[in-house]
UniProtKB/TrEMBL annotation, chain A:
<dbReference type="GO" id="GO:0005886">
    <property type="term" value="C:plasma membrane"/>
</dbReference>
<feature type="transmembrane region" description="Helical">
    <location>
        <begin position="86"/>
        <end position="106"/>
    </location>
</feature>
<protein>
    <submittedName>
        <fullName>ABC transporter permease</fullName>
    </submittedName>
</protein>
<feature type="transmembrane region" description="Helical">
    <location>
        <begin position="127"/>
        <end position="143"/>
    </location>
</feature>
<dbReference type="InterPro" id="IPR001851">
    <property type="entry name" value="ABC_transp_permease"/>
</dbReference>
<feature type="transmembrane region" description="Helical">
    <location>
        <begin position="253"/>
        <end position="271"/>
    </location>
</feature>
<feature type="transmembrane region" description="Helical">
    <location>
        <begin position="174"/>
        <end position="197"/>
    </location>
</feature>
<dbReference type="GO" id="GO:0022857">
    <property type="term" value="F:transmembrane transporter activity"/>
</dbReference>
<keyword id="KW-1133">Transmembrane helix</keyword>
TrEMBL record, chain B:
<dbReference type="Pfam" id="PF02608">
    <property type="entry name" value="Bmp"/>
</dbReference>
<feature type="signal peptide">
    <location>
        <begin position="1"/>
        <end position="24"/>
    </location>
</feature>
<keyword id="KW-0732">Signal</keyword>
<dbReference type="InterPro" id="IPR003760">
    <property type="entry name" value="PnrA-like"/>
</dbReference>
<protein>
    <submittedName>
        <fullName>BMP family ABC transporter substrate-binding protein</fullName>
    </submittedName>
</protein>
<dbReference type="InterPro" id="IPR052910">
    <property type="entry name" value="ABC-Purine-Binding"/>
</dbReference>
<feature type="domain" description="ABC transporter substrate-binding protein PnrA-like">
    <location>
        <begin position="30"/>
        <end position="315"/>
    </location>
</feature>
<dbReference type="GO" id="GO:0005886">
    <property type="term" value="C:plasma membrane"/>
</dbReference>
Length: 295, 359
């Protein structure tokens, strides 16, 4: 029999990269910016974090450097979309390709090196996992209960109105993009430092795209992000455990289960939205639109 | 670097068309590769790229090689193959099973280009196939696994349920059981050749089931890293993965494609290339057994090496009867040896494995 606690503990760590990346993207999108470069920022974070952890022997410094690196590459996106008013979808895709290539180039000397050991936190779970979970109420509080969060949401809902009220739309958005980059960087670094325990080219293998999907899945709420990441990570871990335990469920079904579960919930959410429209719970009004001050 | 090279070679095409060949300078033979993973995977693709580098070393200015890495199996592979063919490559190596139909389709459109497809079984006038008898190496790994396990549970991370992988699982299991009748095998399918996070999760799932020896047929070193964390052992896959020696990596199966690649490029250069299927193993040097480390007791090492030698000399075949299929029906009678046709279409587990093959 499969012990549910061990599945849960595995799920906690398997979903952490997505929790971080999706929470970061949530804040970015709430500010009205659609950054499709999550995958690119994650892999840059994975490489930078791993390199720093290896060089200093301290995983903690690795995560700090990963956050800085993620934020730094996200600034290229900020530059393109906020100052040069480039299309956000195209710039985001470019950031993904750029990040993957950049990391592959600089990652060559680090191939095959092992990550330094981490000191586990409570329940023999990595501290970063707990940090990821702690970020959920923090971000909820920030978005829904703080003045700064209200301004950020205002910028995301209607940037013209926010501008007319005198809020610095561009600065708010650049900050949000930077935060999203830092979070994606930490998520990526968790992958290289804590899960895979080494640097491998292309190691994010689509995690950034899943994070993007989870933001939509979450209906742009912090708690929804956690639920989505756990659902996706949980089903992934569970299907591997079921396979290892030799449970007679067709493997194809198990493999598609995480995606299937995500799609079903998305359908349920959109159905629910259709019949009970509640304000402030759908996509931000200005999502993906560039802002420039006419006067 | 590869993309840039490719662009450069695309740009050169019209120039070649216009220039009149006044000087009889011989154009180098262009050889293209598509890889399923990144060259830095440290496993399967890395070894193919070593083969490509060996070609450059061997033939120098007479060849020019290009590669496209991380090509998904499926429709995108056709695009990549066409791109290479249009760029003037005369010989193209497609190095993953899932490139099979794309290769056949593109080869029909470019009858003058020669294609080489790894691990597949569909051939054409201008499509040859090549493969290595990995199951011979798996027999050696299985022997070590059977001797080394303390929990009597060994785990296998499979990529896709295709004959090549199934041969490996069967061969490992048969030889583990031979030296340890109590051994059980757990199989997890990752449905990917290269996904480090998923491979790591699969290894964790196996370890949570009590497995202490992990075999893998996926390309990254992530399962070894996980094994190390949990105090389990594993084997290098496709490449030596010696960074993880002496433990958790206690030995490895190394794919050495260089001799085959050099031979085939040489045949194109002197005009003797023809379509055929090649399937060499330990004896041909395509499958090598990486150093067995000191983590393995001397007598186990000796036993494993003896098995390797008997396979290399042709004295022993890893699939020798009596062997039954999983459902208990007889497959090979006493002393009977599996034919290559049977092996290349293998779609069943042998008796004793409890996992089911996804259908």
């Amino acid at each position: 029999m499969i012990d549910p606690l061990s599945v849960f503990l595995l799920l906690l760590s398997a979903s952490t990269p997505i929790v971080f990346a999706a929470l970061g993207e949530l804040v970015t999108e709430r500010a009205g910016v659609l950054n499709l470069g999550v995958e690119g920022m994650m892999i840059v974070g994975a490489l930078a974090g791993f390199a720093a952890a290896h060089a200093t022997g301290s995983p903690f410094i690795g995560f700090v450097v990963a956050a800085l690196a993620g934020a730094a590459v996200s600034m290229t996106f900020a530059m393109l979309t906020q100052f040069l008013l480039a299309n956000q979808v195209a710039s985001g895709l470019a950031l993904t390709l750029f990040g993957l290539g950049l990391a592959a180039l600089f990652g060559k000397p680090l191939e095959g090196i092992k990550a330094p050991a981490m000191v586990p936190g409570p329940l023999r779970i990595n501290w970063i996992v707990w940090l990821g979970i702690a970020m959920v109420p923090l971000i909820w509080w920030f978005l829904n209960r703080s003045r700064a969060g209200l301004i950020l949401r205002g910028v995301g809902e209607n940037h013209d109105a926010a501008h007319a009220l005198g809020y610095p739309v561009r600065i708010v958005r650049i900050t949000a993009i930077g935060f999203g980059g830092a979070m994606a960087g930490v998520g990526g670094a968790f992958l290289s430092i804590a899960i895979v325990l080494q640097w491998t080219e292309g190691m994010t293998a689509g995690a950034g795209w899943i994070a993007l999907a989870i933001v939509v899945f979450s209906n742009w709420t912090a708690l929804g992000v956690l639920a989505g990441a756990w659902l996706f990570g949980g089903v992934t871990v569970l299907q591997l455990r079921l396979q290892a335990a030799g449970v007679a469920v067709p493997v194809q079904f198990l493999s598609m289960a995480p995606y299937l579960a995500t799609i079903i919930v998305l359908v349920l959410i959109s159905a629910q939205q259709k019949y009970s429209r509640r304000s402030g719970r759908a996509a931000p009004g200005s999502l993906g639109q560039n802002f420039y001050a006419l006067r | 670097m590869n993309r840039r090279k490719l662009m450069a070679s695309l740009a050169v095409i019209p120039a070649i068309g216009l220039a009149t060949p006044v000087f009889a300078q011989e154009e180098p033979l262009k050889v293209g590769f598509i890889y399923v993973g990144p060259v830095g995977d440290g496993g399967w693709t890395y070894q193919h790229d070593l083969g490509r580098q060996a070609i450059e070393e061997e033939f120098g200015d007479r060849v020019e090689t290009t590669f496209i890495e991380s090509v998904p199996e499926g429709a995108d592979a056709e695009r990549a193959l066409s791109q290479l063919a249009l760029a003037g490559n005369e010989l193209i190596f497609a190095t993953s099973f899932g490139f099979m139909d794309p290769v056949i389709n593109v080869a029909a459109k470019f009858p003058d280009v020669k294609f080489e497809h790894a691990t597949g079984y569909k051939r054409a006038e201008n499509v040859a196939t090549y493969d290595a008898r990995f199951y011979e190496g798996r027999a050696v790994m299985g022997t070590i696994a059977g001797r080394m396990t303390e929990s009597n549970k060994i785990g296998y991370i499979g990529s896709f349920p295709i004959p090549e992988v199934i041969q490996g699982i069967n061969s490992s299991f048969i030889h583990a059981r031979k030296v340890n009748p109590d051994v059980e095998m757990k199989v997890v399918w990752a449905y990917s050749w290269f996904d480090p996070a998923k491979e790591a999760d699969a290894a964790s799932a196996l370890i949570a089931e009590g497995v202490d020896v992990i075999l893998q047929h996926t390309d990254s070193t992530a399962p070894l890293a996980k094994a190390q964390e949990a105090g389990a052992i594993g084997f290098g896959q496709a490449s030596d993965m010696s960074n993880f020696a002496p433990s958790p990596r206690v030995s490895s199966i190394i794919d050495n494609w260089a001799p085959y690649y050099i031979e085939r490029v040489g045949q194109v250069l002197d005009g003797t290339w023809e379509s055929k299927g090649t399937w060499a193993g330990i004896a041909g040097g395509e499958v090598e057994i990486g150093e067995i480390t000191e983590a393995v007791p001397a007598e186990v090492k000796e036993e494993a090496l003896a098995l390797k030698d008997s396979i290399a000399s042709g004295e022993y075949h890893p699939f020798t009867g009596p062997l039954n299929r999983q459902d208990g029906s007889e497959w090979l009678a006493e002393g009977q040896v599996a034919t290559d046709e049977e092996l290349s279409g293998m779609n069943f587990f042998v008796e004793g494995i409890t996992a089911k093959i996804p259908e």
